[in-house]
């Protein structure tokens, strides 16, 4: 395979764990197919030692990071993908300040020898201190639980074990007063979503084919994405678990948000949050993840608006086999933790529960759009 830097067939396959990574024997650059860069970040592919000093584990200053990325844009000119020939574009890998070059066609990544050494050093620091991070997380969780008990009383937080400890987090009920009008838009969205899923299961109306055509690719840009896909994807689901989770979020939290915004504004708000989440997944999602379907991004926006409007309302939630009542702001924190744990990439269990998940960028994009929209609404009221 030709090295994009050297323009000669100097890239050889190097064994790393159970996969093979292509590395240039001349300049040391490495090519990672989608998902393979974890071989470097997880320490299975050591960086070469003769590339000069590697980056320090601490992140670079903002100005330095911007200068590095500007230089990377100039370096990207004329760099073709060694797999498909498409032009490469620089990206800041996981906000570390280390530029890598991603192909919008096949989703692979080109990493120079210096960047490979920098990433190896940066993630080695995280791996070496993994136990410290775990202990800090446990301490923070215990502190949050103590504050919750002191604020809301000892009865809040009493745990009841569920029958099946599914690794999902969903709201079951909330303490907000019902609105003066029935949430017709919420009911309509729920009916349409469930109906389309049932039609896809029985093979009627070519809904399954529609799902395949509209699914949003992760981190590849909008090239090839059908028009109006961002508005239609929130109504299509790839599995019964994401369907159930999305319906519960919308049913429990959406009625009060609809009552606060109004019916037509809520419908536009729901579509907007879904579109922002889909765009974030397409532009900034992790390369190699499955194409996304479902309402996860849109209901993340509903959660963001609920947090702005009703931050202290108690929510009864299910998570990892337990049912507990917490205020809305703690439920949002638990949701954020779950998103960070599940949103980095596909795995065997995540593929089983949700074969078409949104990336971390998609979830956070939808949540931010919902929270910002609610803040603007409160400002104009």
Can you put this structure into words, describing what you see?
- Helix content is 50%, strand content 13%.
- The protein folds into two domains: 11-128, no CATH class; 159-380, Rhomboid-like fold.
- By secondary structure, the chain is α+β, with helices and mostly antiparallel strands.
- It has a six-stranded antiparallel sheet with strand order 1-2-3-6-5-4.
- Helix 5 runs antiparallel to helix 8 (240-261), helix 9 packs antiparallel against helix 13 and helix 10 runs parallel beside helix 13 (360-380).
**Main CATH class of the largest domain:** Mainly Alpha
Count of individual helical segments: 13
Q: Proportion of β residues?
A: 5-15%
Shape annotation: globular
Q: What is the CA–CA distance across the termini?
A: 61 Å
Give helix and strand order, one letter per element, not per position: EEEHHEEEHHEEHHHHHHEEHHH
Structural class: alpha+beta
Mean pLDDT, all residues: 80
Report helical residue fraction: 40-55%
CATH architecture of the largest domain: Up-down Bundle
Number of domains: 2
Count of extended strands = 10
CATH evolutionary superfamily of the largest domain: Rhomboid-like
